[in-house]
Design brief:
heterodimer, A: alpha/beta, Rossmann fold, three-stranded antiparallel sheet, 8 helices, globular, B: mainly alpha, MetI-like fold, 76% helix, 0% strand
Chain lengths: 222, 218
């Protein structure tokens, strides 16, 4: 369960998200949709503790922010090191030894393990990024447009991995501009407009009878 | 001046400046990384002062170290004045702000790139500093070399605290100053040539060991 109460995030005098309450069950996949700049990414970043709240509170299962969470950024974030060293990083932080033979095979990144992460294509980088997130065994996986500008193969691999994670009990919150993807994957939809969250809506109901607040945006997409 | 004397002066120059660079780097690099990672009140002032100290006049540093180490000074009891140690101390004071400021700028750029990832992975501040210093090592080698270049070319402070004593504290720069004042211009120019060659050799060796500019991936 994610609960947000009267939250507000401002940067340089501009309200990025603000002044709304939101509570939703996180089981399965929750899609966050809305226009560019509507506050989707800021909401995910705030839930993960990357943005500072000016007011209000936000929590996942009443835990400290980022505990039990993993984040996949829209632009893959890596150290200037090899793929293997980037995958090892979360485990080094905890003083553990990573095991990634199987997942690296599943995500088809084994051939790149010893290459510099920045040299990979965007699709390969995003697969590595998701692999690292899944290896952390998160309770909550936050995905910020993970398949934006990826080809069909990479998108399919990533979507399959997300569905596998959900089957293993991982809660997923996915920001996406792809309505096809939202339809295929999500159980509920939260719509953002001008920094305010609306919902959650059941996914099939959202597409069958689009709520008034999202109608213009849906029309623009057609 | 005989060849053994020349060799002695050259080696002394090298050891004093390398020693000062190692000590200054050990102080300046962690401090620069910490400054890049930390947010605290008056941080901008600290950065401004650090940048201003990059241009600190070496003669002024020499004078302060001289007064501190002289018999009537607070550290006079240590008997360090007119020793190579005093020269190392002066050089460390001169080059530490330079290396710290360059380290701060290099690490700040990298921190912009790594910020979200390292916060997301809940790394501690110490771990972040280690990661920044490791991944910025090529830039930091350049920062250390800039410090070494300033140290080995320095004359005012080492003259004051070292005294240019033959077989004790004479280094290439103070020898050049002495030979110029004696009118031995060609000899002074030759010593200058040795100084330049020495600086280039150290730079090439460090870059070679640090494998900078290999791969050129980023």
């Amino acid at each position: 369960m994610v609960t947000a109460q009267a939250i507000q995030v401002r940067r340089k005098g501009r309200t990025l998200i603000g002044h709304f309450d939101l509570a939703f069950d996180t089981a399965g996949i929750t899609a966050i949709v809305g226009r560019n700049g509507s506050g989707k990414s800021t909401f995910l970043r705030t839930l993960h503790g990357l943005e500072k709240l000016q007011s209000g509170s936000i929590a996942f299962e009443n835990e400290a922010l980022a505990d039990g969470q993993a984040f996949v950024f829209q632009t893959p974030a890596f150290l200037r090191r090899s793929v293997r060293q980037n995958l090892d990083l979360p485990f080094q932080v905890k003083g553990q030894t990573p095991q990634y033979d199987q997942i690296a095979d599943d995500m088809q990144i084994t051939p790149f393990l010893d290459m510099p992460a920045h040299q990979l294509s965007m699709g390969e980088q995003q697969r590595v990024s998701l692999t690292r997130a899944l290896m952390m065994n998160p309770k909550l996986l936050l995905l910020d447009e993970p398949t934006a500008s990826l080809d069909g193969t990479s998108t399919h691999l990533i979507e399959t991995a997300i569905q596998d994670a959900v089957e293993h009990g991982v809660a997923v919150i996915l920001a996406s501009h792809s309505m096809g993807q939202v339809r295929r994957l999500s159980d509920r939809v939260i719509y953002f407009e001008h920094g305010v969250a609306h919902g959650p809506f059941d996914t099939s109901a959202f597409f069958a009878q689009t709520p008034q607040v999202a109608k213009d945006w849906m029309e623009e997409g057609r | 001046m005989l060849w053994p004397d020349l060799l002695e002066i050259t080696l002394r120059s090298l050891l004093i400046s390398l020693g000062a660079t190692v000590i200054a780097s050990a102080i300046a690099m962690p401090f620069g990384a910490w400054l890049a990672l930390s947010r605290f009140r008056n941080r901008r002032w600290v950065i401004a002062i650090l940048n201003a100290l990059m241009g600190i006049p070496p003669v002024a540093v020499g004078l302060i170290v001289y007064l501190s180490l002289s018999r009537s000074g607070p550290f006079g009891v240590l008997g360090l004045l007119f020793t190579p140690t005093a020269m190392v101390i002066a050089q460390v004071i001169i080059i530490t702000p330079l290396i710290a400021s360059l380290t701060h700028q290099i690490c700040r750029e990298l921190w912009f790139e790594y910020h979200d990832l390292l916060i997301s992975l809940k790394t501690g501040k110490w771990h972040r500093a280690r990661i920044l210093l490791r991944d910025a090592r090529r830039g930091l080698i350049t920062a250390a070399l800039a410090g070494f270049g300033r140290a080995i070319g320095e004359v005012g402070a080492v003259m004051i605290v070292g005294g240019n004593i033959d077989h004790a504290t004479r280094v290439l720069t103070t020898a050049i100053s002495l030979e110029t004042s004696k009118g031995n211009l060609w000899f002074a120019v030759s010593l200058g040539g040795i100084l330049i060659v020495l600086s280039v050799i150290v730079s090439l060796t460090v870059h070679g060991l640090g494998k900078t500019e290999r791969g050129g991936r980023w």
